[in-house]
Inverse folding.
């Protein structure tokens, strides 16, 4: 039972890290996104198993085992001269957990920022053999609207009719451009020769070639990719500061109590499962209901805040 707790924690950590790695570049690939879904399921399953094993150790003779859970590494620990109750091991384990939390926060921001706004159209164009060409606007743009952020114009959305060299002379498309489009403006468009009725897709903040190829790329070319990289770095640095603070200001015993607390680990397991259930429809390519979306976002936020709150409570304890 003791090693069930330890191994499920290790496997769950690895699975969660792999799932977050997938999220960094999954937005440009065709759905369903089975990679993060499978690894996320493994991580959630390990969290549930670990919580169940901890409850099992709290019963009868297992309570004494739980109270001394970190005091030795068993036969393997004696052979290697290793102890699970050493301050170095406890802080390293807690640091690894915070590293995962930090990485997960960064990966979530990247996944949200790089998600394409034209999923259905991009998918249809890609399935029809989509390609990227430089086209010219041949009619006056319609429905032009400014994309404002804090009263600063970031770009323009519009409806364009473009001419594609060696392709349609008139191709209707919805567009997002950095500058206000006019007749004669050149834009990159994703279109399909076999299905011109699908129109085109123009978005100057996204890497159309990455979308057309459907390849995994953590930080694709384009403004969205650059913004995602910046957000990832800032998130890693910000949460990393808290990680260092909580890891080195709490005593080893306090950190050990949190790691082996059955009620707390049960809360974590429930929140991890809620995040997986909330994001599952999106990963499978379907539309998530408002309740599922709220469950996924709020579950993740509550998971991080709970982890920070419990770690903050242990500051100064031995």
């Amino acid at each position: 039972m003791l090693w069930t707790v330890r191994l499920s924690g290790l496997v769950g950590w690895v699975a969660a890290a792999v799932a977050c790695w997938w999220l960094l570049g999954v937005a440009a690939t065709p759905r369903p996104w089975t990679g993060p879904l499978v690894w996320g399921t493994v991580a959630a399953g390990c969290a549930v198993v670990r919580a169940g094993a901890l409850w099992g150790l709290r019963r009868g003779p297992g309570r004494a085992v739980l109270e001394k859970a970190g005091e030795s590494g068993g036969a393997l620990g004696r052979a290697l001269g290793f102890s699970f109750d050493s301050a170095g091991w406890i802080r390293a384990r807690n640091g690894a957990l915070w590293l995962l939390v930090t990485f997960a926060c960064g990966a979530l921001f990247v996944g949200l920022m790089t998600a394409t706004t034209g999923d259905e159209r991009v998918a249809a164009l890609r399935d029809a053999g989509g390609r990227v060409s430089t086209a010219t606007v041949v009619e006056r743009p319609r429905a032009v609207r400014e994309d404002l952020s804090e009263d600063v114009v970031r770009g323009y959305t519009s409806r364009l009719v473009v001419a594609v060299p060696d392709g349609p002379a008139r191709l209707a498309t919805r567009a997002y451009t950095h500058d206000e489009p006019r007749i004669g403006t050149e834009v990159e468009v994703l279109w399909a020769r076999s299905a011109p009725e699908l129109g085109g897709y123009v978005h100057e903040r996204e890497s159309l070639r990455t979308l057309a190829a459907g390849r995994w790329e953590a930080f694709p070319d384009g403004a969205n990719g650059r913004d995602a990289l910046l957000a990832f770095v800032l998130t890693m640095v910000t949460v990393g500061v808290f990680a260092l603070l909580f890891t080195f200001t709490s005593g080893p015993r306090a950190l050990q109590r949190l790691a082996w607390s059955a009620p707390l680990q049960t809360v974590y397991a429930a929140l991890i499962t809620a995040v997986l259930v909330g994001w599952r429809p999106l990963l499978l390519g379907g539309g998530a209901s408002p309740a599922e979306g709220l469950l996924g976002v709020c579950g993740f936020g509550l998971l991080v805040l709970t982890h920070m709150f419990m770690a903050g409570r242990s500051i100064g304890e031995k």
About this structure: The two ends are 27 Å apart (CA to CA). Strands lie at 131-137, 142-149, 152-163, 171-177, 186-191, 200-203. Residues 258 and 264 are 7 Å apart (CA to CA).
